[in-house]
């Protein structure tokens, strides 16, 4: 049986393919590391690759192997494992919500946040729906767990989220990008969750993409609608009338 959102080709070449589990240090893992670090890539892609290799140190060799596996089931397992690791790490901190973290712990949390954002970003580019759904869950868990500990001066954290937002917007674009209704709703929910992250200026982070004409219009209109319903145009809102008009007028 092919799960919803998984193409026949993925099912045939994925979980049904003969692919033995790769132990830590296997030649397959080495090949994956070489694939991540070789070739001409953009600065953003290089940063994502470095984050994935950091993820190997944080979560183990098997994670990197599964993230780059040809089997979508293993890719999904890697994302779910990352989510559970975030939950376990949060429990291990033994701090009450709102309490500050020591500098060493905060630095560790920052690294984890950036790494998981890169893992989620990679997963959201997957063409298999169950992998994307797992990525949405992992992102929501990440935001709920850690975002409260950062502020607008946390450049790496804010930067990692800024690189995620365009992909989430693309996931809201429906048939144009082959996403179903659930995926569109999950992407919107993640973006709106980001707007609640006041400590890092979540509203302003999202609002900057609303008037970006290089992004598809349909999801920007939906974002504008939800943004207005939630925050309006009052002084505390990141929205301005000029921004609203810049999005709405071209759609008339």
TrEMBL record:
It comes from the Eukaryota. Residues 1-47 are annotated as: Disordered. GO terms for cellular component: cilium. Residues 17-27 have a biased composition (Low complexity). Pfam families: CEP104-like_TOG (PF21040). InterPro entries: ARM-like, ARM-type_fold, CEP104-like. SUPFAM superfamilies: ARM repeat. PANTHER family: CENTROSOMAL PROTEIN OF 104 KDA, GLYCINE-, GLUTAMATE-, THIENYLCYCLOHEXYLPIPERIDINE-BINDING PROTEIN. This is Uncharacterized protein. It comes from Octactis speculum.
């Amino acid at each position: 049986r092919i799960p919803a959102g998984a193409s026949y080709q993925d099912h045939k070449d994925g979980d049904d393919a003969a692919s033995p589990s790769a132990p830590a240090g296997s030649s397959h893992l080495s090949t994956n590391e070489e694939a991540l670090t070789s070739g001409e890539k953009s600065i953003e892609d290089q940063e994502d690759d470095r984050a994935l290799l950091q993820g190997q140190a944080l979560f183990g060799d098997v994670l990197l192997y599964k993230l780059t596996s040809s089997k979508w089931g293993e890719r999904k397992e890697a994302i779910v494992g990352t989510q559970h690791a975030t939950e376990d790490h949060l429990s291990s901190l033994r701090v009450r919500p709102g309490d500050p973290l020591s500098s060493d712990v905060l630095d560790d949390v920052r690294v984890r946040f950036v790494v998981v954002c890169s893992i989620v970003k990679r997963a959201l580019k997957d063409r298999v729906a169950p992998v994307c759904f797992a990525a949405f869950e992992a992102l929501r868990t990440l935001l709920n767990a850690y975002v409260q500990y950062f502020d607008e001066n946390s450049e790496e954290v804010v930067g990692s989220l800024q690189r995620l937002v365009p992909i989430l917007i693309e996931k809201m674009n429906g048939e144009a990008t082959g996403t179903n209704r659930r995926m569109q709703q999950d992407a919107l929910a993640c973006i709106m969750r980001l707007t609640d992250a006041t400590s890092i200026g979540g509203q302003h982070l999202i609002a900057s993409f609303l008037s970006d004409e290089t992004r598809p219009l349909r999801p920007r209109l939906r974002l504008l609608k939800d943004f207005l319903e939630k925050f309006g145009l009052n002084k505390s809102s990141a929205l301005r009338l000029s921004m609203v008009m810049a999005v709405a007028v071209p759609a008339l």
